[in-house]
Amino acid sequence: MLDSKEVTSILLISIILAFIISLMKTTQLFFQILLFVFLVIIVNIIAKKITSYYLDSEVKIKIWEVYHIGFRPWMHFKKPFAIGAFLPVIFKFLSVGYLNWMACLVFDVKPKIYRAAKRHGLYAFSEMTEAHIGKIAAAGIFANLIFALVGYLTGFSEFAKLSIFYVAFNMIPLSDLDGNKIFFGNIIQWSLLAAITFVALGYALLLI
Amino acid sequence: MKNNFLNKKKTTAIFAVLALIAGFVFFGKNLTGNLILNNQYSFNWISLIALSLIGCAIILGAYSIKKE
């Protein structure tokens, strides 16, 4: 289900986020945040993996990487830069400890060999469509929102807050993030999820 | 995709109204009325969220009233 590269990426990002959020105030707080962040990421990934299975494709999780830095062809790094591992640290410093950037993991979708043999709608596609990639990304976001609600109702308000922040940052339609995939897959679906996310985020900032 | 209940116009219309109401509620949280001596930078994350919610409501509303 998860290969070693994916597991390494998830663990690395969980540790970075836990370190950034807790700022190592106490060891207990660090491990508590680490567990919550890990659970949030795992919920998101499992939802995506299940959805991709039903859409005859395979999802590979990786750290968010940036290659191009401009519109011109020569404006790029020599190698893809793992911005997902550095952005939380940069944001923490720039916002003087106020903002915790949490969108660090992205995914690649590969269609399975027998996908062309099955019909999806009117036409048979061997390649993944934008709509299907958007659906996979939306499943992860939706699962996190459901778990945030469950966490809040069962008294794990910190878990709920982290879930909502994770979703809010991932919903930004930028680069390779989930928000961009949903946005270009189906803008109505993005608007619906964004509306739910913003309400949850406002609630989390004001009340939780 | 079109059969998805999230894409039905009734659903999007309901969410548009809810997003609009939530947007105005969040905007209202920043209206204290005590502005005379307030010389601080007035940017607030809640205002940004409220603005984004109204943006989402506009997109959903436009889709809901659009003819096929």
Q: Rg of chain A from C-alpha positions?
A: 17 Å
Number of strands of chain A: 4
**Which stretches of chain B are poorly predicted, pLDDT < 50 over at least 5 residues?**
none
Continuous helix count of chain A: 7
Shape of chain A: globular
Please give the share of residues in helix of chain B. 55-70%
Mean pLDDT of chain B: 78
Question: First CA to last CA of chain B: what distance?
Answer: 15 Å
**Helix-residue proportion of chain A:** 55-70%
Structural class of the helix and strand makeup of chain B? mainly alpha
Strand content of chain A: 5-15%
Low-confidence stretches of chain A: none
Largest sheet of chain B: none
The radius of gyration of chain B is 16 Å
Largest interface, counted by CB within 8 Å of the partner chain's CB: A-B, 17 and 22 residues
Number of strands of chain B: 0
Condensed summary:
Chain A is mainly alpha-helical and 208 residues long. Helices cover 60% and strands 11% of the residues of chain A. In chain A, a hairpin with a 7-residue loop joins β2 and β3.
Structure description:
The complex is a heterodimer of chains A (208) and B (68). Chain A has 208 residues and is mainly α. Chain A has one domain. Chain A is 60% helix and 11% strand. In chain A, α5 (157-170) packs antiparallel against α7. The two termini of chain A are 35 Å apart. Chain B is an all-alpha fold and 68 residues long. Chain B is 60% helix and 0% strand. Chain B has helices spanning 9-28, 45-65. The longest helix of chain B is centred in the last third of the chain and has 21 residues, at 45-65. Chain A binds chain B through residues 121, 131, 186-189, 191-192, 194-196, 198-199, 201-202, 205-206, and chain B through 1, 6-7, 11-12, 15, 18-19, 22, 26, 29, 45-46, 49-50, 52-53, 56-57, 59-60, 63.
